[in-house]
Amino acid sequence: MALTDLHRGFRDDAQRRRAAELVLSRLGDERRQAELHSLLQFTAQLSDERAGIDEAWLAEALPGVKLIVVEALIRAVRASPQAVDHWIAVTSRPGPLLPPEPVLDGTVLPAHHGDLHRAAAHYRLVSETGDVHALYALGCVYWTLDQQEKARSDEHFWMPAWRITEVWQHAADLGSVEAMYAVAMMQDPGSRMALRYLRQAAAHDHPAACYALGYEAVQRGDRNEALMWWTRAAEAGHEPAIAAIPLLEIYSVEGESDPM
Length: 260
Description:
- The chain is mostly helical.
- Helix content is 64%, strand content 0%.
- The longest helix has 21 residues, at 132-152.
- This is Sel1 repeat family protein.
């Protein structure tokens, strides 16, 4: 649907400028120039009655999480200036506006007085007995050593990512739920292998895996599936999911409905 009607939905120029300012300040990221350019085009459309971009173009240009916020503004503009006021108030609130991306925490418990190389030797030895927990821990030690090396120099790595993944995949195939999640997080987001291992971990009620599946669903624009996964994660006490659910619900409301 065309967005040529949006310039008529604001109370005045001040309200339009404030909405555009929030779009850029809260959603813009200079590290992601393509997304930032798309947001600039959208804010320009807010004051232009000529055909420029449409909703289908926005859906292609913006990731699902940011698209939710932009689509909420579009609905508010088409509803009333009071609905725009509400969108501005919600978007201006301090604190995170977008759910954080899922992350891999491969930190292993301190072992061998912090000597990770000795820890690796120990876990290698124990894992040869078929100890799945030692095998997962070995992958964690490898990952931690690799992160430390990368922090010292972006051009070097301690161990190839495929090798670390191979260790975790072996542990996952032996039943380690934490390793299932780790393998998924080593893949490209949304890839077949990532989703397969996330679903395996989520089948064991792994909170971070449920959160990651919800995040992937948001990127596809499936808010109902995202809410389902995030609710499962939140019930297990997963803090990112607990914080994400209100954001999803606030920006999913229609028109002038007030979530407060």
